[in-house]
Amino acid sequence: MIKIRPVAAPSLLRFIKLEQVCTRPCHHAVAPNEYTDVPKYPPIVDMSRRAKKKRLKTAWHDKITKLPTVEQKLMELNLPKYYGYWSGHLIDVCPKLLGLNFIQYATRTHVVNGLPEEYYSDVKNEAERLTTAVTDKVEHLIHLNYNCPLSRRSFGPGRASERHSTQNFLLGLHRLMASTVDSTVQHIKESVVDMQPRVEAFWILGGLPPDEMLRKTRKNYEPSKELENDLIDRTMQGVSTPRLGVRVTDGLPEVVSRDDPLATSAFVPDNKLDPRAFGFWPGEKKEHSQLWLHSREFITKFVEEYVTELTYPLVQQSAITDGQRWNFSVYQLNTCTLHSDLATNNPHNNILWLGEEQVLFENGVKGLNAEVLTALISMYLKKGIERDNPTPHLGSYKHLADHPASEEYREMFQSHLHDLFSGRGRHFMKPEMYLWEKIYKKDFNTRFFEARRRFFENHYKQKDPGQRRLDEYSPIYIPKAKRKDRRVKYKPMLDSEELYKYH
């Protein structure tokens, strides 16, 4: 045994016995066998630039599909763009000249003239019976809203007065219809009514030719020369504001089968022009549309997640009206994935049944059209069907409220999502190149003495603002008075899978 005499001064070197430290023998697991009976080769993948981009896109789509809640899917869709996507807008109040063919192509919709009569055959007799009982009340409602001014707003400008009368009439008509059919059907009694909701649709449309600027950029960049004329994807945003919406628990039954020739091989116009030439929250139990009443023309009813294909068709009823003239329609959504080449090479297409324009009444409540009331009551009476697994791409918990993360993380995530979908701009606007900068810095470098800090100037932190992600930000500092743990100085970062996590 080695003995060392202690000294008063601190020693620079001490000796200890190695046996006292390593008392356990070293060991490791048995090495696995390197040889197998059947050879295993790595998969052979295409390493071209086009194939790599396709694999990245497919992996992102699979990630979105596997996320368990609606809110997480919505957040993941918005993560790639901090300042939002540059989208082509289709707005119902701004119809484009000769834009019908493009809208049909952008939504892959086949239009059928006339409503499907056999679809309402089971409720037609009941609708005709209720029509005779409600006719007098409808005449009184028309006289009240169009012949008797109720407020000073009715004496305003012609267009504003008409909108005000139409809104009041549609609300009163819905109350009358709901109270009439409420004793017959249960789903209307339990329905939820939305007044002027903001209905928005977002999807990626593929199969569009590149613009001239993108074509030149690809041509002048060596790795992308072969992609010069490749078709591109454009993000599309559809906006509509119906006067009134009725939501129920169960979705409507399909009009035709998803394998019907009308849903697989119907004619859809091929209009590949660049689009630049032309609402309720997740968690609601009443998530299916029963009926939409519009006071003006609408662009589209194409609303779904664009990376996950439907497993069964969705059906929606609509009525376009100004109170006097009515157009009824039924829309069946069979496909919603239109990115890449699926805009043209898609085994399914959507169908719109559009009825002819009908007049409910003439001036002064003359000649009340009972057929319009029968068609409207039939839409109220049509009952949805309950499906075994209506949300196969969601987890056992459909919404964020049941997520296993902590309550604090769920509240922060929900608040962040509400801010995104509120329609307000970012606190800091997206950086842009001003005209004087393009002249004096980009085209003619006359200010070379200034420090290079802008995003279009070459410096070590240069980055395109369009490539900034939503989860790329500095961690938020937590004041000392609000810290639950003194060692934790910053909040966790946003994450679509775990809601929030520390990097």
Question: How would you describe this structure to a colleague?
Answer:
This protein is about 25% helix and about 15% strand. The protein contains twelve helices and 13 strands. It starts with 17 loop residues before the first helix and ends with a strand. A hairpin with a 3-residue loop joins β12 (about 495) and β13. By secondary structure, it is α+β, with helices and mostly antiparallel strands. The chain folds into two domains: about 60-70 and about 400-500, no CATH class; about 85-120 and about 150-380, no CATH class. Strands 2, 3, 6, 7, 8, 9, 10 and 11 form an eight-stranded mixed sheet that branches.
Note the topology:
Layout: H1 18-21, H2 49-66, H3 70-78, E1 87-91, H4 100-107, E2 109-113, H5 124-146, H6 158-181, H7 186-189, E3 192-195, E4 199-208, H8 212-220, E5 232-240, E6 244-248, H9 261-264, E7 288-294, E8 314-321, E9 325-333, E10 350-354, E11 358-359, H10 370-381, H11 407-420, H12 435-443, E12 493-495, E13 499-501
Parallel strand pairs: 1-5, 2-10, 7-8
Antiparallel strand pairs: 3-6, 4-5, 6-7, 8-9, 9-10, 9-11, 12-13
Keywords:
single chain, 503 residues, alpha+beta, 2 domains, 3-stranded mixed beta sheet, 12 helices, 13 strands, 15% strand, disordered N terminus, structural constituent of ribosome, mitochondrion, 28S ribosomal protein S30-like
